């Protein structure tokens, strides 16, 4: 990431909207914005699949679900955030990974300019490529600030995307079980 180019670009944007860059509170804004982009776009040149490692090889053919994983990403169309949560379920075929590894996959793919549809697919594909599970389901529900702050201005509207692979696609009973686990009310 070229922070100097980001700093110069932010200066141009601020000048374009008429901001006085010499004002005390604005002097460091371009640098702060560059640091922010470095942090929130840190997944841009990483492969989320690299976060997954097999920690166990054992017979387990039941659903493993990590739900309510926080998601924050930047919409690539307007460069404003979309914020929500991801639910990731899989049925292993002997290969099991650590629960935190799944959350890390979500983080890596969400820390880049992104669209929710692609993000959902990338998470599922990374799990399939590393674990070869019997089934994977990824559901993301998020509020897009490009719909809240501008354009149609509909705060609270959520976009839901899903990707279903393996048994979850072909076996409606297994798919329904995963969906019911995702929809369980927290205790």
List key phrases describing it:
187 residues; alpha+beta; GTP Cyclohydrolase I, Chain A, domain 1; GTP Cyclohydrolase I, domain 2; 2 domains; five-stranded mixed beta sheet
Notes on the protein architecture:
It is a single chain. By secondary structure, this protein is α+β, with helices and mostly antiparallel strands. It folds into two domains: 38 residues, GTP cyclohydrolase I, N-terminal domain (GTP Cyclohydrolase I, Chain A, domain 1, Orthogonal Bundle), CATH 1.10.286; 133 residues, GTP Cyclohydrolase I, domain 2. It contains seven helices and seven strands. Helix 3 runs antiparallel to helix 4. The model has no long low-confidence stretch (mean pLDDT 95).
- Architecture of the largest domain, according to CATH? 2-Layer Sandwich
* CATH first level of the largest domain: Alpha Beta
What name goes with the CATH superfamily of the largest domain? Answer: GTP cyclohydrolase I, C-terminal domain/NADPH-dependent 7-cyano-7-deazaguanine reductase, N-terminal domain
Strand order of the largest sheet: 5-2-3-6-7
* Topology as a string of helices (H) and strands (E): HHEEEEHEHEHEHH
Sheet-strand content, in percent, reads 25-35%
Helix content: 25-40%
Please summarize the sheet with the most strands.
Answer: 5 strands, mixed
Number of domains: 2
Radius of gyration: 20 Å
Q: Would you give the CATH topology of the largest domain?
A: GTP Cyclohydrolase I, domain 2
Shape: elongated
| Number of DSSP-assigned strands | 7
**Overall pLDDT metric:** 95
């Amino acid at each position: 990431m070229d922070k100097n180019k980001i700093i110069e670009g932010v200066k141009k944007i601020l000048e374009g909207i008429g901001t006085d860059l010499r004002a005390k509170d604005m002097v460091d804004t371009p640098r702060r914005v560059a640091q922010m982009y470095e942090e929130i776009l840190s997944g841009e040149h990483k492969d989320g699949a690299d976060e997954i490692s097999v920690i166990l090889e054992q017979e387990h053919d039941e659903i493993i679900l990590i739900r309510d994983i926080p998601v924050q990403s930047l919409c690539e169309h307007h460069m404003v955030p979309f914020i929500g949560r991801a639910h990731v379920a899989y049925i292993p075929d002997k290969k099991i990974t650590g629960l935190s590894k799944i959350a890390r996959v979500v983080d890596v793919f969400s820390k880049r300019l992104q669209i929710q549809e692609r993000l959902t697919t990338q998470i599922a594909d990374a799990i399939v490529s590393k674990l070869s599970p019997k089934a994977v389901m990824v559901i993301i529900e998020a509020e897009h600030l490009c719909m809240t702050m501008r354009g149609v201005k509909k705060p609270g509207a959520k976009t839901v995307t899903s990707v279903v692979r393996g048994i979850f696609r072909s076996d409606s009973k297994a798919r329904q079980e995963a969906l019911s686990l995702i929809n369980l009310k927290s205790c």
